[in-house]
Design goal:
Length: 374
Amino acid sequence: MSDASCTVLVVDDSLANRSYLAHVLEEDGYRILQAASGEECLGMAAAERPALVLLDVVMPGIDGFETLRRLKAARATRRAAVIMLTSVGDERSKLKAFDFGAVDYIIKSASGSEVRARVRVHLRLAAADAELVAARAESLRQLAAAQRSLLVKPEDLPAARFSAYYRSLHEAGGDFYDVVEVAEDLILYLIADVAGHDVGTSYVTPAVKVLLRQCATPAYSVPESIAYLNEVLAKTLLQETYLTAYALRVNRRAGKAVYLAAGHPPAIFVPAEGPIAFLSRENPFVGMFPGSVYQAETIDVKAGDRFVLYTDGLVELASVEDAAERGWTESRERLLPALEKLRGVSLGELPEALVREMGADKPDDDVAVLAIEV
């Protein structure tokens, strides 16, 4: 066991009581720390991260219950197992201790063998819980790595002429993108956001990638491709799970771009010459209702023109103090002057530069940005 996993903090304003408990527990080889007050306990627990705390209820200053409440409220100490110590077997006090997060309750008159037995049980439980948390964290890391491996990189498909920024708030996020070569000089770009931010949303990513490759052919128009995604996902996704998406298909040979938004923020068109503008063609969410009809629009493009696709994490920021009052529509208008400022930035640097310019480089939400050049 590590030092932290076998460290016990004894908290009691009585030196005699602390010394007795330390003597009893040292027989089992634990590393024993001592604190004479709730305040001292909080500081020592934050610094030493003990696996278990034996905490007296009645103490001068903050009592044991308030100390317990603060221990459980602090991120550094909330996982420590806490056993309350008292000289009174009061039922109300026991229930209060359990409500505040204690794992056990020992009467001070208990024998040394009982104290050792209870400490031993809860240290084992704490160790098992820590192992479970570590195992789950590793599973999430593997899931996140698998999800990121599904994201197409610019070097994987140089003909697509794009760059990307991707960051998930949790180990595995709900935002994702895909880039598919439909035919020579014909590329389909998709950026999407699955409703919710729990781990389950990440499982939608591989499903969408498979489906997109099935329908991303010259035989399917952009609306037909998204309608195909909708029909399959609406029949298979869990209830209340759906995604917003923005699809853009660029035909470089013909000089045409076809786009549609399915409940998703509009793309931004940055022409080589001329004003920057939003491209919005509203459609239903994907995967919510079978039979939804989708419509797209087409614009002329030429070499040097750019598109920027993004998820709402780029504009819905907790760091923007008045964003909630102004609403998403107004706060997104900051994108236009931001991109005007970044016109001279290279395609490879543009997504990250835009994220920084918008203040979205802090973990308020999942963020994905695609920059595409004709």
